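Appendix B, Record 12. Input sequence as logged:
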Amino acid sequence: MSRAQKPRGGSTPARAGAVVLADTLAAQPPRPESYGAKAANLGALLAAGYRVPPFAVVTASACAQILAPVAEDIGRALAGLHHTDSDALRAVSAQIRALIRGLELPGSVAAELAAAVDALASVKPAAATGEHSRSSSASDFAPAGDTIRLAVRSSVSGEDSATDSFAGQLDTILNVAPGDVPAALLDVLASAFSERSLFYRAHRGLDNAAVDCAVLVQVLVDSAVSGVVFSCNPQSGDPAESVVSAAPGLGEGVVAGLVECDTYFVDNASGRIVSRVVADKRGRVEPDAATGTAVVPIEGGDSTPALTDERIGELVGIAAALAGRLGGPQDVEWTYDRSGVLHLLQARPVTATGARETIFDNVNVAESYPGLSSPLTFSILRAAYEQVFRACHRDFGATKQIVARNNASLYPYLVGTAHGRIYYNISNWYRLFLQIPGMEFAIEGWEAALNIENRYRRPAVPKRGLAKLRTHVLRARVIAVIAVGWLRLPRRLRRFFDELAVFTADLDRRLAPETPSRERDPEALVQWLERLLGQLVPVYSVQIFNDFLAQQLFHVVGLLLERRGLDEQQALTLRNELFCGEEGVDSVDPVRSALALTATIRADEGLRALFEGPLDTEAVWKTLAQKEFAGFRDDCLRHIALFGDRTVAELKLETDPLGEHPERLVPMLRNYLRGGQNIDDMAEREKRIRREAEQTARTLFRGSRAERLAFRFALARAREHVKQRENMRLGRSRSFGLIKRVVRECGRHMHEAGLLAEPRDIFWLTWEEIVALVRGTAVDTDVVRTVATRKADHERWRDTPVPTRIVTTGIAAATIADPALEAPATVDDSATVLHGIGCAPGRVEAPALVLGTPDPDVAIDGQILVAATTDPGWVFLMVAAGGLVSEKGSVLSHTAIIGRELGIPTVVGVPGVTQRIRTGDRVALDGRAGTATIVHEDTP
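Logged structural output:
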């Protein structure tokens, strides 16, 4: 640690005017109103004897002087701005930032800043005086022979406080040359009016027009390893545990989440490291001449710990000392330079300590509910999940006491919604697992199957005594419960489809014209849907049990392959190929039926002329009513009756089934007619891949009879459960088709009663609101106003990008940031090879077709479909495509399974692919390697 640093040669520091050097600031009482919170905190660290890289601060009054020429323009731009209006925020932010970037620094400020930068460029820090001291030289801050580089960052009043951390809201500019500091200063000031900063301050009740911003100019350390240390656990607020995060290179990699980090959990009382998560580090953030900083790949990865135990102890000790000195838990950023010297970069109170953290994630649910979903869809889904997982918890061995304890606080809250999108409440899903003693072993396979970011720290297995015995007893109990459930599984699967048939027949009778109207009046319909939610939906819990077995066995197959010497990628590829060509997958039946219709068209001259002719979709469907086409039209209606519930976004209640728009079958058949697809040829190709993979596996397990038998058993059972997973999904589609019919009938009744302007407006109400309106318990009966408000909200959210994961503390609705203002995922515009998870083998080169919400009339003829996410209804589009690549998905997602079954090269989990690839680009897709390569970019 060093005391205040002095310019080399004994020159006099700048006076306390527009720009103040570190030693002057450290000698004064803290003045955050003048220097901002970050600079004041750094001054306090210097005064306490800690080593801090040399810095100067452009005071808040000097920054106000810089902004004075445009202050009135900024005030006018901010007047009347509402922080929930994303478009207005974007426009106002761009206007203000352009004004600030066009300024020139006042002469006096520019002169003082230049003198301060010169002083920093010549600094040689004095020796530190604390126990971690070491004499320093300029090499701590720049590699030998290099010009010193600087970091320019904000220091705002209220920033880095216990209540308002402003974390990531204002820009930090790294690797700035001394001559570029004035421009970087203006960029930082402009960032105080970025979209996310304007939203953050307004959302926290702070005045956007009163931003007291100072700016720090600090020497950039030539960092070897950097990170953050918390003197308490920042998630739980537990003061007994410190947490250290570390990664090679600059600290930006850790705080911005750009690289893989190690994490260490330390017991404060004993100093013992109780848990460590050492990542396979693939990149490090380093200075870059062109972009300031860049993520530099680490060749071959690095799985060695970023920190020694001695350094972990040193960091935890400093954080504890600062917590005691500053009166509360501290969040300390730090770096070790290449000489092994520790520098503290900032310290601030840990924000929201002890507040309950809730994690919402849409990584898997977005496959079934892509984009915006109506309030009615969300409310029915929430009620369905409550019923299913209450029953499911019992299936996995939860006691009556556990189930009773969770009836009110857990089961109803397994899904959440943010800005019209549906998310899993991942925090509660972990609670589901962990409330069944002995079940924690299954979390790893569940996370891997759903491609969910790991959040769970599995405790070490006790090595001796009663604790070890108890662990084995609990595991045995869980295994016994699962074994019994597995034996009951076939009967339970049959029971679901039997119950579904009963409900289907009853609704057909109830909605028939000859049935008395009292059996389909609003109260009767509400009772019917309540019965479905209470009787049929809990039976669907068998799907969750089957899914669990599929996920775990699929994971076991991969682990067994790795044990025979394959690396992770090789095991993934072979496992995918072993699951190709599975027979009896009911989800493929709708495609087989549609291809059979296409074969009929191809064989009939009149039908072929009609479908290849110039008539539009509706005209073709009307023409099929002619007598000469009656037989084919009947075949089409049979297809619609059997498979009309399978559509794109089929689980959204607002999505119309095919029966309401039968003409939409026409473009699908036209796509197949153009492409010449043959389901038998596709299936034979997949079977060939499967046979070759089985031969590879036999060779791999030769010589180990026990492992060979275990592998055969796991593979056979995994194949069966994956197949049943898809079959149950088709049953789920048909169940939702029943709900669609009921709510549409309710909408018609409410429209006739004058409550709704249109029958379809019922989708803007929740299920609970519909029941309240029917039974007289609604506290707000102005339904038209409610519908108008929600329509406006959805229109505003429609084109708003949203994060995959949202982490909230305390009241969830109060701490969910506006998704429009989340920092967008970084997409490398120069990258031509994009990497994801290969799910269905095969290689194809074709033009790309980027799809958001698929148009039923879209023409598909062998292109590679590029999407943010897909759902089961995409199966009809996939068949006509050459391949598919999506941003979301996992190896057990519906897209992956159908891709393997139909022999369509498929790659999922490719970040930013819809931003990097444009429609018309020529792309080579490799479903085995998991890559999408841009061969030629189409010129707009």
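The first strand starts at residue 19 and ends at 21.
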